[in-house]
Structures are given as C-alpha cells and as structure tokens.
Amino acid sequence: MVETRTLLVRADKNPVPGVANPLPNQIYQNVRVCVENRVLSRLAPDEIRLQMHYVGICGTDLHLTTNHPETGYIRCTSPLEIPEEGRVIGHEGVGRIIEVGDHVKHLKPGMFVALESIIVCHVCEVCKRGKFNQCKHAKLLGLEKDGLFGTFVDVQASIAHNITDYINDERDLMAAANIEPAGVAYVACENAALKAGEVAVIFGAGPIGLLTAMLSKQVFGASEVHIIEPIEFRRDFAKKWADYVYTPEEFMSSPPGKIDVVFETSAIVENVTRIFRHVSENGRVVLLGRKGIPLEITAVDHMITNEIKIIGSRGHLCGAFSQILALQKAGRIHLEDIVTQVVDDLSEIRDMLQHHEKVENENCKVLIDLQKQMLHMSTSSVAGGRTRDL
C-alpha cells in the first residue's frame, strides 16, 4: 500500500427536476475542493502506479470547481461522475512509473510517461473506425475516473506514453505536462484543415487558445493569427504567438478582411454568432470550449452561399501525442513557454480553484510540482507531525 496526498472534489447530487438527460451542470451542486491523504491499495493488472512530477490546471477544472452564484450548480458540462467519496481531479500531467500491473509488458518502472485523458474502450463501432476521440464508452480522467492531482496515482497503462528519451531536464518535464492540451489544439487545427497562408482567428487566450495559436503559426503555416481576449494579462502574454491581439470590442469594431478559420476556445459561443458574417468563403468555425450555452446562427444564407463549415473538436488521440513530441524535440514548438506559474503545494492549488480569478486574470498555464509537495510532506513528518487531512 502507498499513501498519497490528493486534491479532490465533492458535491451534492441533485438533478434538476423534469430534465430528461441532464448535463453535469444540472446534476451537481455546492462543489467543495479538498486536500486529503488516501491509500492506494493493490495495483490492478492493467494499471501502472506513478510518482507524479507536474500536473496542470485546465479550464475544465475551473468550470468543475465553480458554483453558479444563484443556483449553486457547477459550471462544468463535460462528462462527469462525482462519487460520494469524491473525485480526484486533474488530467494533464507527467510522472515516473514506480510499479506496473501483472498484465503490463510494454512499460517498466523508472520510465517517464505523459498521459492521455480519454480512456477508450477499443471495441465500439467508433473505436473500430479509429475515431477514438469519439469513443461511445469513453471515460475521462479526472472527471469520470480519478485523476492526476496526487503525489502517487494509479492509471490505465493504455493511456501512458513512454517519453523517457525526451526528458533531459526540468523544463522538459514541464513541457511534457502540456502535451495533452497541445494535443487538443493539434487535433483542432487538423479538424479545421488549416492550410499554409490562411488567416486564423482565435477567441480566448487561455492555454488551449495559445497552443492553437502556436501550432497555427509555427506548424500549420497560418499567415496571420488574430487573438481576441478580454483579460489584459493574457492579451499581453499572447503577443508572443499572435500577429494581432484585441479586446472583444476592438475586434468586433474592425475585424480583418479575410478570415479562413475561427477557433472558439473561450466557451463564449456568442462570439461565433457575432463574427459569422465576416467568415470568408469556404471558411471553417471550430468549437472547442463548452459551457452548455446554445449556439445561434442567424446568417444561414451567408453560410450556405459561402459553404462555411461548423465543426466540433474534442480530444487529443489518433496520433496527436506523437506529433507533438516530435515537434517539441525538433524545437519547432516550446510547450514550457505557456507556463506562467509553478506552485509546490496542493493546498495552494485548492485555494486557486476556490478563488479562480488569480488563475484567469494573472496566469496562462499553472502547474504544480508534486516532487516539492512530497518534500513538504517529508519535512512535516520529520518535524514531528503527520500531514493533516484538510
């Protein structure tokens, strides 16, 4: 058995009456973020046990841990299951294997691994067609299965990528913690069929938005990248990867004359409605952010005449991890550059999630260094006290 320090959420399950197929933001109320010690028991045959190094905060984590001020329901609409004992969250991370299950032959203790966050069934019709991001029976790490915010965690071996040969220093480990969101951005660019010389517009300068900008410009060859972001810190930070950066008001008052692809990463889908008439012929609109808000398209004639496509994009499977690793190794991209803060205590992550303005207004990607968390625990133990459950 192994003791682990974890970050988890608990919530009241209270589905909205009269809704046939409620989303998580219509099921769970009054979310609480907790830091607790847990014990990992015997490792399952198809799992690996990891000592985590870096784990990142995702926008989904912010939505999951935010209660609506009037109703108390959470804001997250991604597939989610919160059991009575709580759900360990976190789905972006890198760790080192300390033990493998009896059925695991391709991975060994000591290897560094980056982790996918979609656990697929491999047997449904969609998986058989190779469309793993849309697996009918998929389970999401940190949402439907316990996630990565723990000093030690157990995960399915099938979602682990051996990246040992890519790790030379601490910056490489920090970069590896961003492979999952970079894969999401890569798949979005593929779904957009973004071509060299095209103009890309990105709503939102959070991690997914900036990674989409990075890949659009440096990998897919966009001639111009425009980013729209209301928060000043994120606008300033985005200038490294964008040709033009605007407030929403600035952009809507004078949009570019040519827009080939729109990426909506902020989950404010009204942006699409407002900009839709400015999308060029044969343009594509790619939706990544979600809050359960309806999308309204009023310019249907413009859509039909100009053959504009609206595309939903989810996931990072089907080869994106390998592509991102190759690009990082070649120096074409630098995933560590989107990190704006590294903390070393799960309690600080808990506080950030409870007061998420600090994450949104003063940061892009926040990571926790769980090796330093373990050092804190050891220091506390030497000082004569066992780390207290909170």
UniProtKB/TrEMBL annotation:
InterPro entries: ADH-like_C, ADH-like_N, ADH_Zn_CS, GroES-like_sf, NAD(P)-bd_dom_sf. Pfam families: ADH_N (PF08240), ADH_zinc_N (PF00107). Its cofactor is Zn(2+). Gene3D superfamilies: Medium-chain alcohol dehydrogenases, catalytic domain (3.90.180.10), NAD(P)-binding Rossmann-like Domain (3.40.50.720). Residues 207-324 form the Alcohol dehydrogenase-like C-terminal domain. Keywords: Metal-binding, Oxidoreductase, Zinc. Residues 45-163 form the Alcohol dehydrogenase-like N-terminal domain. Belongs to the zinc-containing alcohol dehydrogenase family. This is Alcohol dehydrogenase.
